[in-house]
Amino acid sequence: MTQVKIAKYSVIKQYICQKIESGQWPEHSKVPSENELTEQFSVSRMTARRALQELTEQGLLVRSQGSGTFVATFKSQSSLLEIRNIADEIHERGHEYHAQQLDLKSVEVNEEMAILLSLKAGDKAFFSSVLHFENDTPIQLEQRFVNPKLVAEYLQQDFTEITPHEYLSSEAPLTEATHEVEAILANVDICNLLNITESAPCLQVKRRTWSRQGVVSLAILTSPGNKYRLGSHLVF
Amino acid sequence: MTQVKIAKYSVIKQYICQKIESGQWPEHSKVPSENELTEQFSVSRMTARRALQELTEQGLLVRSQGSGTFVATFKSQSSLLEIRNIADEIHERGHEYHAQQLDLKSVEVNEEMAILLSLKAGDKAFFSSVLHFENDTPIQLEQRFVNPKLVAEYLQQDFTEITPHEYLSSEAPLTEATHEVEAILANVDICNLLNITESAPCLQVKRRTWSRQGVVSLAILTSPGNKYRLGSHLVF
DNA sequence: GGTCAATAGTTGTATATACAAGCTTGCTTG
DNA sequence: CAAGCAAGCTTGTATATACAACTATTGACC
Question: Partner of A134 at 20 to 30 A CA spacing, among A87, A173, B35, B123?
């Protein structure tokens, strides 16, 4: 029996992450200062600092000399990869953006999707489908499959201020996701939705998140014109 | 006149980066230990450590308790984004990989490419084109445009152990790159090269690197079957 | 009431130290 | 010669301390 020693700074990181993930510390809220954490966990300031420092580098926190440490916003966290937030980009082009909810139902999953959602083939999954428009031109069809275990949690939400799709889109901040990008020819139904000919190539992005397992997103972008942009960062 | 104070750990980072970028410290080579940097720069161990630590988090170095710190390999650096290194993936599928150099010539650039390469439209650029095969099936056409200013440097290389295309592929480790992914229908020439029908959709990835500006890569992948995979990482 | 300065609190940088944990090397010992 | 142990190096964790730089608040003064 080997006792795995857990580093103190790692315990503090876990603590802070749990607070953020559970929503107890919302975006922009102030995080305990280095001195407060020092007292609370009976560690030296450098140890407390290390926890805050690393979480800042991971994009969960934002620090400002003189003012304090704060929970980062979603936007600043998802600097690398984002299928969905196309609204900003469209507005930057000076165009109007709006979305239309198409489906919100229960469907039987096929074999591949079953594996991705930790289900058995034929099981029911929650399905949400939204069409995104740029100036009344449909540009992206987004489909989302959700493990029904998460739907219970979903139904407990108060939807007066948030749409169902928005809730399902709001993965936890601690998102580790894998994306698969593929060029496809869409089927008839999708072509009609996106108002394109059947020979037009489309970009399909499949996204699996790990922190909130059981959610798979599928985005189909019309092309050409719609590009999936990625930036990697390496500066200091 | 304000004097900008430069942190000591930052100076050490710059020093190490310069050594790696210039090739003086190749992949896998050992980097000075914390104690050596402590003496060399007359700083405390914690300051030297911070430089190594941050460069490790940025993926330039790899550290191993007990053995030392080493320059990371390309592979471990490009954990996020890589157009080109499909060979490994093909081998993992148990298939054979090989590549064929098609072109290696000078071409006039169009307006768009001129901007990307900091040239004027009609200027000459260096052009390299390589076809990648999986079990004798062409799966990816890769085209590379290079600013002629870099070609001088290119010609000074010793090509006994490295092919021209490999050299042009070996961007500096400090790569900040932007990728644009798009679904397209390839033109006749490319369809012939990739041995696909003209109605088959293709995935086009355009990559611009910033650390070695003046290189633009264009990869065209046949589809379906070829996916462009991305992973984001957030673990501790 | 408005302006400015002092102050307290915050993060940023840097040092010196100590011990733990893992790897490498070389020497001892059987 | 081989096995194994010990020494010495490396990085990892943690503490205590000091000062710098920046911010927001407070309070005094005009």
Answer: A173
Q: What is the pLDDT of residues A78-110, one digit of tens each?
A: 333 344 456 666 777 788 888 787 877 888 888
Tokens of B6: 């430069």
Residue B16 pLDDT class (50, 70, 90 cuts): very high
Mean pLDDT of the residues in chain A: 74
Domain ranges of chain A: 8-76, 80-222
Q: Is there a common fold for B8-76 and B78-222?
A: no
Judged against a pLDDT cut of 80, whether residue B59 lies above it is answered with no
In this prediction the pTM is 0.60
Question: What CA–CA distance (Å, rounded) separates A65 from B235?
Answer: 26
Strand, helix or coil at B83?
coil
- Please report the residues numbered 53 through 72 in chain B whose beta carbons come closer than 8 angstroms to any beta carbon of chain A: 54, 57-59
What's the pLDDT band for B164 if we cut at 50, 70, 90?
low
CATH number of A80-222: 3.40.1410.10
Handedness of CA B86, B95, B139, B164 (dihedral sign): positive
Please tell us whether the domain made up of B8-76 is placed in CATH 1.10.10.10: yes
Residues B106, B123: Cα–Cα separation, whole Å = 10
Separation of alpha carbons A129 and A107, rounded Å:
12
Residue A26 Cα, gap to closest chain B Cα (Å): 19
Cβ <8 Å between B175 and A13: no
What CA–CA distance (Å, rounded) separates B174 from B197? 39
The CATH number of the structural domain formed by B78-222 is 3.40.1410.10
